[in-house]
């Protein structure tokens, strides 16, 4: 376990949070009940989860208990940013992120820690890849894509090879992490060749999983070999090739499986698919009936269909160029291995010293037929061996056990040769064809440190490889830590770290374990016992890393960097030799199968080290040559491992450490014991120890000033924060060894930030007490003033009451007199009014009678006058109509006569070629040719006169179309043309040709138009205005043809469909241009820019916000201009281009609906992956930016059509950041308000919410659970991020265009086609 951090005694006070050991949970949280004083031997604390007091001994070597980190750092995404760096803090932070936030990834400096959730998570889609592409990993949530992006960008920027080293126990998720890493590279670096190299790289995964992965007790898809894949990139950063190297295939699994385990997947896939017609010749049976597949007694994997998996494997072979007949050759060899295991070897002779195989053995016959060899010969040499005695060759029978061992050795050897050939075949398919890779990124998926109840040669090699990798890791971490100090120009002393070089020397050094093992293998009578004795004699009591077990003389113990491991010597020599007799190999070399012969043709006894994988050991012949054991498995593994280390040392490494969360394979179950064991084994705690040995806490001067300005006295200058911090820090921390000033940051030893936090808390507490005293005094003074004023008011009210009583008595007396007077007056007045009303009624009746009499007389006179006027008007109109009809008849006769004369004159002009030449100078030759053709048609026609009159306009329109097409497809000056001019001209040409009956000419003209527009769009693929021009013309021409075709012809439907497709292409090109311009500035403008004055200054960042330890700072791209003004400028450019061409408003609404969705999706996705942006004032900024977009849409009448609705998820996310997050009612209101966000998105934002000032509080886990339960919906998709690549369908509304005529066209003189008006 890592050492305790040296902290100030003042921090260990009453109420402080500490960690105490626990046998079950490893570490539990407790709270001190008293202050610690130097000299105390015990500390009293209360266990928080049990509410039980306990006594903690303060004695060496334990010392003070590890202190807990502030609550503000709970769930920190980088472990090295914690104030106190120790094992319990790391374990607790991983547990909180894993269980409470469902975050499986956490940074630990340069290491990405990945916990296996044993559940499919929606965090690996293409929208997540898009969100991480081009982003700095310090700005995003930890993710395997973030590491891949860092490696890819570093490779492009520095032109240096990269490596991603993925390690961990079996079942920790190494293979899945490697697959997602390769998938990220395949998406980000698309292949430049037509063969889709990135698809081939991904296709190699199913093949390698089929032949190299198997089910174990710890993992259903465990990789039983190590692999290093180099993905080559070209000059433009695209994938152009790949190469794979494999290490230490577990061949013993071919012939033996432990309980609840399986052989390699490919065998079960073949057995499950045995009923396929092409596989029936393999004579396969169920996997339960083969000896090599039924030993684990569990041939099925829950949730896996072996038939489907075989189809995936075969598809992958096809993608990689392996033909079906060659695939069947591979399947025949694999099936032959299964039948080889079922061959029945029987014992015979005295005492069973002989063995034999029945010649009628069915499995032997199938095996021989599949491999194309003689069954009798194979049966002979499986039960006999050839020896050289005295210069003569003797054939000696072997026992049944030896024959079985020879059979198993042959099966392992055949499988290994096939595995090696497959890897070589994959490499030849993935090899770069046209150019050599400029740089590469390697992905190393290798086994982690292993320790079992019984450890043998395989575990020894695996742990030896991990020792080498751990040494390289330690040195790299140390180097990065020192480079950080040099970059900040800090005075530093060398940091001591645990170098495991002595352990490596013990294994690979001169007379080390591998040397002694190879030496013993060369001995004629070498044995495991003799080797063990040599180990004891050479290293016992000489190396601190080598020990001997007390109760065993055939085992040894190595003290590795992670743990002590006891290895059993039994089987070491046999596995290191890996011997196969030569006679069965010679039979296979003579096989009739080309692939089988190829596998063994080039094999020799010595051989050289292959490039792609570890070869087998020796092939033993009858003559014991000195070369027999030259290349042992241990020697080859050491050489290939050294080659791997040289490759890694020449690259920039990136580390991913995969951790098993539990051994039960249950989703989101955290086992602290297993987690700590793996953290110690994978080097994560060593990274923290190296970081804690120096200055683990690092703050920029701005962050330090903002956080601790309450502790800074005197004149403070925000413009010169460094001087302010340097002048004030010595008063806060007297010991200058506990901090150091760099160029841009201030560095602190472990625990010093906690001291500053305590000082800041004390200062704030004292200020709070002072404020409370003043507030309480003010409240008391205010209370006294209120009592005093209340007394005055009561007195005033009493005196007023008495005065009002006197006033009321006087008022009552006066009121009585007034009432009497008024009553008498009302009686007299009532009598007067009655008399007056009767008089008025009598007068009214008399006057009404007289008025009605006069009215009836007036009505009679008016009716008489009206009748007279009507009769006289009718007579006048009749006379006018007769005169007008006569005049019109005379005019029609005169005009008809003039029209006939004009018609005769025009017909005469139409027959005159000379007149046509005068109007169309320069086109005489062409006109003569067309005239000649027209004359021929006229002669052939019965109605010669009518045909001649219809051909001449057609000839003119043909020349019109050809001239206009040449002038119109040019981009120069096209923007100055009236909107839709080209479409109107082309439609007139099409209509004229269609009316003449020339359908071939119509189709050719439409096809030429579509091709010309497509060529122009392709040429001007980045020009908004030109694309909008041709969208308008294609759209208008489509409407013209649609208006023309239903009434007259139907053969134009194909042209209408082609123009519809052309409209969609132009529309998509418009959106593509705008999206390409918007994409780089969306996140900086919507999230990062500060457009609200004064909002940035109010932000107070609480977390350290430090970058990953040792990572080189990426040169930031210039974000100048990446503001909302730039976004609105790009939107306005598109709107201007569409409006200038008078495109329908419905089409514009659809375009901006698509762009608003892109803005909202990109911003929301980035927000969901960035913890630094999830705060209250950032939500206010986002809402303000969205309001600018809404205002812009309203000002251009684009608020309908879904554009504003597309922004709703982003609006609700901004509201979510600003809403109260405390009570259950707040959670219910939040769920109702955020109906456009999924439950996963709401929970993710709440989990990432980071307070930016002391006025805010972190969201509690109970509140998150409330929201999670109340917001759970069955219909919601599990996807976390929005799909930024979603494309909404576009609809082009049909608007009947006005009738087009040549006379109405406004044709610019620059086109030189004004003669068209004469047609």
Major sheet: 7 strands, mixed
| Chain-averaged pLDDT | 82
Give me the Rg, rounded. Answer: 46 Å
Strand content: 5-15%
The helicity comes to 40-55%
The helix/strand class is alpha+beta
Uncertain runs are 1-7, 191-195, 604-618, 620-629, 941-971, 1097-1119
Helix count, DSSP H or I runs of 4 or more residues: 40
Spatial order of the strands in the main sheet?
A: 5-6-22-7-16-10-11
**Envelope shape:** flat
The span between the termini is: 97 Å
The number of distinct β-strands equals 25
Family: Belongs to the TRAFAC class myosin-kinesin ATPase superfamily. Myosin family.
Domain Myosin motor: 74-761
Pfam families: DIL, IQ, Myosin_head
GO molecular function, one term: microfilament motor activity
Structure explained in plain terms:
The structure is a single chain. This protein is of the alpha+beta class. Helix content is 54%, strand content 10%. The strands form 8 sheets. Strands 5-6-22-7-16-10-11 form a 7-stranded mixed beta sheet, sandwiched between helices. Strands 1-2-3-4 form a 4-stranded antiparallel beta sheet. The chain has a 3-stranded antiparallel beta sheet with strand order 17-18-19. It is flat and about 165 Å long. The protein starts with 16 loop residues before the first strand and ends in a 49-residue tail after the last helix. The relative contact order is 0.07. Mean pLDDT is 82; it is low at 1-7, 191-195, 604-618, 620-629, 941-971 and 1097-1119. Belongs to the TRAFAC class myosin-kinesin ATPase superfamily. Myosin family. Residues 641-663 are annotated as: Actin-binding.
């Amino acid at each position: 376990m890592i050492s305790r951090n040296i902290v100030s005694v003042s921090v260990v006070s009453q109420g402080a949070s500490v960690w105490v050991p626990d046998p079950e949970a490893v570490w539990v949280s407790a709270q001190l009940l008293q202050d610690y004083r130097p000299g105390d031997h015990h500390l009293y604390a209360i266990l928080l989860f049990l509410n039980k007091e306990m006594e903690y001994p303060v004695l060496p070597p334990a010392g003070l208990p590890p202190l807990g980190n502030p609550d503000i750092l709970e769930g920190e995404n980088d472990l090295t940013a914690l104030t106190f760096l120790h094992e319990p803090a790391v374990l607790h932070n991983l547990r909180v992120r894993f269980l409470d936030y469902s975050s499986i990834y956490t940074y630990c400096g340069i290491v990405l820690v990945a916990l296996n959730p044993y559940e499919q998570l929606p965090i690996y889609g293409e929208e997540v890849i898009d969100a991480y592409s081009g982003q700095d990993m310090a700005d995003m949530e930890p993710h395997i894509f973030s590491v891949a992006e860092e490696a890819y960008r570093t490779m492009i920027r520095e032109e240096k090879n990269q490596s991603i080293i993925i390690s961990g126990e079996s079942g920790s998720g190494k293979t899945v992490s490697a697959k997602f890493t390769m998938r990220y590279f395949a998406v980000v670096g698309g292949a430049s060749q037509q063969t889709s190299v990135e698809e081939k790289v991904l296709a190699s995964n199913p093949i390698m999983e089929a032949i190299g992965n198997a089910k174990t007790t710890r993992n259903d898809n465990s990789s039983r070999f190590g692999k290093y894949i180099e993905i080559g990139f070209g000059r433009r950063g695209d994938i152009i090739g790949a190469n794979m190297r494999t290490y230490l295939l577990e061949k013993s699994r071919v012939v033996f499986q432990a309980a609840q385990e399986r052989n390699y997947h490919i065998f079960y896939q073949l057995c499950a698919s045995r009923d396929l017609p092409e596989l029936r010749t393999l004579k396969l049976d169920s996997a339960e009936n083969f000896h090599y597949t039924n030993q684990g007694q569990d041939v099925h994997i829950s949730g896996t269909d072996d038939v489907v998996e075989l189809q995936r494997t075969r598809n992958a072979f096809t993608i990689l160029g392996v033909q079906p007949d060659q695939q069947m050759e591979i399947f025949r060899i694999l099936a032959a291995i299964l039948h080889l295991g079922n061959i029945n070897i029987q014992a015979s002779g005295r005492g069973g010293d002989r063995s034999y195989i029945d010649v009628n053995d069915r499995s032997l016959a199938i095996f021989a037929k599949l491999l194309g060899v003689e069954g009798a010969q194979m049966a002979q040499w499986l039960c006999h061996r050839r020896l050289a005695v005295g210069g003569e060759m003797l054939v000696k029978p072997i026992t049944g056990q030896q024959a079985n061992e020879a059979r198993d050795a042959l099966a392992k050897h055949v499988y290994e040769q096939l595995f090696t050939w497959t890897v070589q075949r994959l490499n030849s398919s993935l090899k770069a064809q046209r150019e050599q890779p400029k740089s590469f990124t390697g992905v190393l998926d290798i086994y982690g440190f292993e320790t079992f109840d019984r450890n043998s040669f395989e575990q020894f090699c695996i742990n030896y490889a991990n020792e080498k990798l751990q040494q390289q890791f330690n040195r790299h971490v140390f180097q990065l830590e020192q480079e950080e100090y040099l970059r900040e120009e800090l005075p530093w002393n060398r940091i001591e770290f645990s170098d495991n070089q002595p352990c490596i020397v013990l294994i690979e050094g001169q007379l080390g374990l591998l040397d002694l093992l190879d030496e013993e293998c060369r001995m004629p009578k070498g044995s495991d016992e003799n080797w063990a004795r040599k180990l004891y004699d050479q290293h016992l009591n000489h190396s601190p890393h080598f020990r001997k077990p007390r109760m065993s003389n055939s085992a040894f113990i190595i003290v590795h960097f992670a743990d002590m491991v006891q290895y059993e010597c039994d089987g070491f020599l046999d596995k290191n030799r890996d011997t196969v007799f030569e006679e069965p190999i010679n039979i296979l070399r003579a096989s009739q199968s080309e692939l089988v012969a190829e596998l063994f043709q080039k094999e020799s006894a010595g051989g050289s080290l292959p490039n792609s994988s570890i070869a087998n050991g020796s092939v033993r012949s009858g003559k014991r040559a000195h070369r027999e054991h030259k290349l042992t498995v241990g020697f080859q593994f050491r050489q290939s491992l050294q080659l791997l280390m040289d490759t890694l040392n020449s690259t920039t490494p990136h580390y991913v450490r995969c951790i098993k969360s539990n051994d039960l394979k249950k989703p989101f179950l955290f086992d602290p014991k297993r987690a700590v064991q793996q953290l110690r084994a994978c080097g994560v705690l060593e990274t923290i120890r190296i970081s804690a040995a120096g200055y683990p806490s690092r703050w920029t001067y701005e962050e330090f000033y903002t956080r601790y300005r309450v502790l800074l006295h005197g004149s403070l200058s925000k413009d010169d924060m460094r001087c302010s911090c340097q002048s004030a820090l010595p008063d806060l921390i007297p010991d200058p060894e506990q901090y150091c000033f760099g160029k841009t940051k201030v560095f602190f030893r472990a625990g010093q930030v906690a001291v500053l936090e305590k000082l800041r808390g004390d200062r704030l507490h004292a200020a709070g007490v002072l404020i409370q005293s003043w507030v309480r005094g003010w409240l008391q003074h205010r209370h006294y003033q209120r009592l005093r004023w209340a007394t005055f008011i009561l007195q005033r009210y009493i005196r007023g009451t008495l005065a009002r009583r006197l006033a009321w008595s006087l008022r009552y007396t006066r009121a009585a007199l007034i009432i009497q007077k008024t009553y008498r007056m009302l009686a007299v007045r009532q009598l007067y009014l009655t008399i007056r009303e009767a008089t008025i009624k009598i007068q009214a009746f008399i006057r009404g009678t007289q008025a009605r009499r006069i009215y009836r007389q007036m009505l009679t006179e008016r009716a008489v006058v009206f009748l007279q006027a009507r009769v006289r008007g009718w007579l006048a109109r009749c006379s006018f109509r007769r005169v007008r009809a006569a005049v019109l008849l005379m005019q029609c006769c005169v005009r008809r006569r003039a029209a006939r004369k004009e018609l005769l004159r025009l017909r005469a002009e139409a027959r005159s070629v000379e007149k046509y030449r005068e109007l169309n100078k320069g086109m005489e030759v062409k006109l003569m040719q067309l005239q000649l053709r027209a004359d021929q048609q006229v002669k052939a026609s019965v109605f010669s006169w009518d045909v001649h009159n219809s051909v001449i306009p057609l000839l003119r329109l043909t020349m019109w179309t050809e001239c206009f097409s040449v002038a119109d497809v040019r981009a120069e000056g096209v923007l100055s043309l009236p909107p839709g001019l080209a479409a109107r001209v082309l439609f007139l040409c099409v209509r004229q040709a269609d009316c003449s009956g020339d359908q071939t000419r119509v189709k050719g003209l439409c096809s030429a138009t579509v091709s010309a527009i497509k060529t122009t769009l392709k040429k001007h693929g980045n020009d908004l205005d030109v694309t909008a021009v041709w969208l308008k013309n294609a759209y208008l021409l489509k409407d013209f043809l649609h208006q023309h075709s239903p009434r007259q012809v139907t053969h134009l439907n194909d042209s209408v469909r082609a123009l519809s497709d052309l409209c969609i292409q132009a529309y998509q090109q418009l959106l593509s241009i705008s999206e390409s311009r918007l994409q780089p500035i969306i996140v900086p403008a919507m999230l990062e820019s500060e457009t609200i004055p004064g909002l940035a200054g109010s932000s107070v960042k609480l977390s350290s916000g430090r970058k990953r330890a040792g990572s080189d700072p990426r040169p930031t791209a210039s974000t100048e201009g990446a503001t909302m003004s730039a976004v609105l400028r790009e939107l306005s450019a598109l709107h201007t281009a569409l409006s200038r061409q008078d495109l329908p408003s419905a089409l514009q609404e659809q375009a901006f609906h698509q762009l608003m969705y892109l803005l909202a999706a990109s911003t929301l996705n980035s927000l969901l992956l960035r913890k630094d942006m999830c705060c209250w004032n950032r939500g206010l900024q986002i809402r303000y930016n969205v309001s600018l977009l809404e205002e812009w849409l309203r000002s251009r009448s684009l608020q309908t059509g879904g554009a504003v609705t597309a922004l709703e998820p982003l609006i609700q996310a901004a509201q979510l950041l600003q809403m109260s997050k405390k009570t259950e009612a707040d959670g219910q209101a939040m769920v109702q308000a955020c109906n456009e966000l999924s439950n996963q998105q709401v929970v993710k934002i709440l989990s990432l919410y980071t307070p930016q000032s002391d006025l805010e509080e972190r969201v509690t886990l109970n509140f998150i659970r409330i929201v999670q339960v109340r917001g759970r919906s069955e219909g919601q998709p599990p996807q976390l991020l929005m799909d930024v690549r979603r494309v909404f369908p576009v609809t082009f509304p049909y608007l009947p265009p006005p009738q087009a005529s040549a006379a109405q066209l406004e044709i610019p003189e620059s086109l030189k086609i004004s003669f068209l008006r004469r047609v």
